[in-house]
Amino acid sequence: MTSLHAARRAVSHRYLLLATLGLALAIALPAKADSVTDWNGIAGSPVVLARFGGPQFQYRAMAIVQVAVHDALNSIAPRYQTYSNLPPAAAGASPDAAVAAATKTALLGLFSAMAPAPTPAEADLRTAAIAAINAEYLARVGSLTDPAVVAGIAAGEAAARSCLLQRHSYDAVLDKYTTMDGSQSAHSPAYNLAAGLRIHQPTPAPEFPAATVPQFTGWKNVALFSINSASQFRAPASPLFDVSSQFYADQYNQVKHQGDARVRGAFPNSEKSDIPRFWAGGGLEWNTTLRLIVNGRGLDRWQHARLFALANMAVSDSAVTNMESKYHYNFWRPVTAIRWANDGNPATQSDPFWRPFLQTPPYPDYPCGSTSVTGAVTQTLRRFFGTNSIGFTRTVNAGPVPLPAPMTALPAKSITRSYHSLSIAENEQARARVYSGIHFVDGCYAGTKSANQVADWVYSHELRPL
After folding, report:
1. Confidence band (pLDDT; 50, 70, 90) for 32?
2. How far apart are CA 277 and CA 413, in angstroms?
3. Which residue segments constitute the domains of the chain, with CATH numbers given?
């Protein structure tokens, strides 16, 4: 689909006041860092973000939220180009109220556009998420009798609604958005390629234990935030695709050994077992890492908002690029390849009982999606700070890992990893997918490289200093 980058300037903007304008609000809570990082944490919390569905939906949601926050602040005090054309905010508008209103309005608009919850339990979780957003808003915004707060709310709402309207239509009577950017057809058309040499297939049962049906076949058609087309930074064809080659055999045997659930389960506390669990268990939540990285660097709200918007736009556009590449090549996953009876390569040996350490994601192998996320954020950080030498430490609570019988499942575990540079984190995350048993290594590095290119484009074209 053609990017909305050029067309977005013509989008209409609407100011819709809160239905609860007369409600007395609680005094704002003290922020942990500033309103931008606080609200990023609220939007990206498991209570809220998980309700949007799979990772691709989450990336899209966070990009919309963070662009709205950025534009709201810059309608108050212009320092960077805005994503949308917005009128100046009223004089004296509260930046913190604008950030709160932009986040709340964007999130609730996104919730209104979702299809009905598939189960009563999910409906209850969505209700809880909306209640959590409203509670934070009530606690943080302050008194609506303050003209600065009222003006800030108007600025935040205007920015959020402008961003939403670029990907949705709006029914003012129902106060409901309808998605029209392609994400409503994320899994269409259904994947139907017949089984064959090197062709991706539903993950064979009994992996965990059911087959995983390929998803996000239509994500390549989702409207982009910045790049020109989903294929603009398509990963190049890999020598991996020649399954008769030694190159393929080497990568096949690497993942077959290092990513075998039986091997990893036999060494549960080894680094090669901890690394995949760390990244799958929370390391890929890059907004959390961004908040850690910016802490104490002396950045203000405008700088935080720009960084978070650039990073999340790069991630979202990289996800579209990634799915376009995946379904262009349709290359099989290790679990399919290793269980295949005879691939014709004398340097590989089939194992019909082989199982990966972690569950295989529901789409083709090449290029890797998770390294695409990491590569988009790390390259944005390099461009923003002008250095690769950015270190950080993260602790995640990795969930339990089932293992093949008769082995006992690995229990949940707290895992801490430290990195002295962004490239070290990139490289480890690529290796993590091999140790997980879910990727050939060449696809991991292809995902990183493609996402680096997307991030360079976004950084060079969006939210430039005035």
Report:
1. low
2. 9
3. 7-183 (1.20.144.10), 201-461 (1.10.606.20)
